[in-house]
Write a structure and sequence with these properties.
Elements (H helix, E strand, L loop, with lengths): L1 H27 L6 H4 L4 H9 L4 H19 L2 H9 L4 H14 L3 H12 L11 H15 L22 H4 L1 H27 L7 H12 L2 H6 L2 H24 L4 E8 L14 H22 L6 E3 L14 H5 L5 H14 L2 E13 L6 E12 L5 E6 L13 H6 L23 E3 L42 E7 L6 H10 L6 E5 L9 H16 L3 E5 L5 E3 L21 E8 L7 H5 L5 H26 L1
Helix pairs in contact: 1-3, 1-4, 3-7, 4-6, 4-7, 5-6, 7-8, 8-10, 8-21, 14-16
Length: 625
């Protein structure tokens, strides 16, 4: 009976504390953003690690329970994603969600296991201060544990406008270390205060309690192991606040590019009987996108440099007139004509998402096959196609099916819903997009009269006429960094653009978040990607198909546009116009050196163990001498 009660108590502890951790972590992330709550989010993990430190099996189970609740509270939109993609039974979608819940958060059971083992009596003498152990293990499990949808411990703390500036030097993993080190310190102080109260010392009078607390705080143990942390937190808070002010002043002196972002709210790009009807495609090409561009141009007084269309603005069609795309009925002439028309009409370059069909090597057989690539292309002011970029990190189930080749070999393709069988190709390089914005709109007095009507018969817009005459010559003014969908969540990928190409001026992120419905995903996607602006000190223009679009400056601020809302609403058509700062300064420390700073916590973690090992070996050596 006692053993049964113990097992029941362990199960309740795992579920209860796992749910507390999941709820606290969720409220620390977007769209809630309570960074103060992030400091207590790891507390349940610290307690579970201590409670189950003698059983690696219970540590792993407790970690899986915590991972499940994090996924249930923060990433429940995954279930909607699975049901949107295919017509499989709901039970299969539920199984996929449960698998995802663990695979998405493997770092949680990994941290619990390692931190719990470090609390064993056998290993504790070899360990540095507990807060340093927690910080180091939090970082290393964040880096090494594989993730499908990447979020990091540091994202829980990213809502703090001062601490988040640290990522210019350490990346998001620096916040992970800070969170676990600071949270562990707070947890230790809380436990010690609870011990004082439980020991009855507080009841013996306030003066005696104060003397006891003063003696406790001035002990050598506390000075060496606990007091460094609050000084570190305070110093970084003040430094981050000063750094943010410096960056905000610096970006005011930078040149700008006027960018219009269009949100057409196009339907999802399904295939087969769920494909988008032709009349809907015609409406997007003939009316929705041209009208949004005209409204944006009028708001910008015809002084646009770049018009950005989101991912899947015209669902699953291509502007690439190569033979492969024509053969597969992907090339849509009206789509190509619209892009050229917008570029010539408003003398602004047009950057749009595209599907490119090209030869690719099949991994299972090594033979060359034709494959679709999720790509983007820039149209210059004269309507010519310019640079293209192909997406490098594909979305699981949406753009590739795990072990799809194995299913095909076994003849089990019938088990995979049709919409999940598509396997896109991976882009080969991290190339930038060259753009030019030297040519501005002609003054109104110099513009010849011209009708505003387009193929859709749209009426003239007041205050802005289309530009006519000879298109301005495109000049190689600069380069921007292209990212498609959730590529912006991978800091290592973003760094490769500096290593493999020229210095980018700013970042453009095209995405389609409609797969996840009217959920928290769009806000989480935006907030998690926002950190790249601070890591690289490059502004981010985020253009979505169905919300939430917006702009992040070099200091990580969400900025009010010249026209349109700060955040576009989900499930609506909208446009925004921004003056995006062009930063051609040197690459940041993190962009150049990446995670090299992790040598410091690794050394601090290993040095006490090496010193203790050396001291342990010394007497033996002397005896032998």
């Amino acid at each position: 009976m006692n053993m049964r009660n113990a097992r029941l108590g362990d199960t309740v502890a795992m579920l209860l504390l796992g749910s507390v951790h999941g709820l606290a972590a969720t409220l620390s992330l977007a769209p809630f953003n309570y960074p103060l709550l992030a400091w207590v989010a790891p507390w349940p993990l610290f307690y579970l690690a201590w409670k189950f430190r003698d059983s690696w099996f219970k540590l792993v189970l407790a970690g899986m329970a915590s991972a499940f609740f994090v996924c249930l509270f923060a990433f429940n939109w995954l279930l909607f994603y699975f049901t949107t993609l295919g017509d499989a039974p709901f039970a299969l979608h539920l199984v996929l969600f449960l698998v995802y819940a663990v695979l998405l958060n493997l770092k949680i059971p990994a941290f619990l296991l390692l931190f719990g083992l470090s609390r064993r009596a056998r290993w504790r003498p070899w360990m540095p201060p507990t807060w340093l152990v927690a910080g180091a293990l939090g970082v290393f499990t964040d880096v090494l544990a594989p993730q499908i949808f990447p979020w990091y411990w540091g994202n829980l703390l990213a809502g703090n406008p001062c601490y988040v500036q640290l990522v210019e030097y350490t990346g998001i993993f620096g916040l992970s270390f800070l969170l676990f080190a600071g949270s562990c310190w707070l947890y230790k102080v809380f436990c010690m205060l609870v011990a004082l109260v439980a020991g009855g010392r507080v009841d013996s009078g306030s003066a005696r309690c104060f003397r006891c607390l003063r003696r406790w705080l001035t002990s050598a143990f506390i000075r060496k192991r606990l007091l460094p942390v609050p000084f570190m937190l305070l110093a970084l808070l003040l430094w981050g606040g000063g750094l943010k002010q410096t960056v905000q002043q610096y970006q005011q002196s930078l040149p700008t590019v006027r960018v219009a972002m269009l949100q057409p709210n196009a339907p999802l790009e399904m295939s087969g009987e769920h494909a988008v009807p032709p009349e809907v495609i015609d409406g997007l090409i003939q009316q929705t996108l041209p009208d949004l561009a005209a409204e944006a141009a009028r708001a910008a007084e015809c002084k646009l440099d770049l018009i950005v269309l989101p991912e899947a603005a015209i669902p699953y069609y291509s502007t690439d007139k190569q033979m492969r795309a024509k053969r597969d009925d992907l090339y849509l002439e009206d789509f190509d004509r619209m892009a050229r028309h917008l570029a010539r009409r408003w003398q602004a370059e047009v950057y749009l998402n595209d599907v490119i069909v090209d030869a690719d090597t099949e991994h299972s057989s090594g033979r060359k096959i034709d494959r679709d690539f999720n790509a983007s292309v820039l149209y210059s002011r004269d309507g010519r196609r310019g640079d293209t970029y192909r997406k490098q990190i594909l979305l699981v189930f949406g753009e590739y099916f795990p072990f799809g080749g194995l299913f095909a070999k076994l003849g089990l393709n019938g088990l995979i819903p049709e919409d999940l069988r598509e396997n896109y190709g991976r882009g080969p390089t991290a190339n930038l997009i060259a753009y030019g914005h030297q040519g501005r709109a002609l003054p109104a007095a110099d513009r010849p009269p011209a009708a505003m009507g387009v193929e859709s018969g749209a009426p003239p817009q007041q205050g802005c006429r289309p530009i006519s005459g000879k298109p301005k010559e495109k000049r190689d003014y600069g380069h921007f960094l292209p990212l498609i969908c959730y590529e912006i969540l991978f800091p290592d990928l973003v760094r490769t653009f500096w290593q493999a190409a020229r210095n980018p001026d700013f970042i453009v992120n095209q995405t389609q978040d409609g797969w996840f419905g009217d959920s928290m995903e769009s806000f989480q996607h935006y907030e998690l990607g926002r950190i790249r602006a601070i890591e690289t000190r490059r502004a981010i223009a985020r253009c979505t198909n169905s919300g939430t679009s917006g702009f992040v400056d070099l200091a990580g601020n969400y900025v009010k546009p010249l026209a349109g809302p700060v955040f576009t609403a989900q499930g609506t058509t909208a446009f925004q116009v921004w003056d995006v700062p062009v930063n051609r300064g040197q690459a940041t420390f993190y962009t150049r050196w990446g995670n090299i700073w992790m040598i410091l916590p690794a050394g601090a973690f290993l040095l006490p163990a090496a010193r203790r090992w050396y001291r342990h070996r010394q007497p033996v050596g002397r005896a032998r001498d």
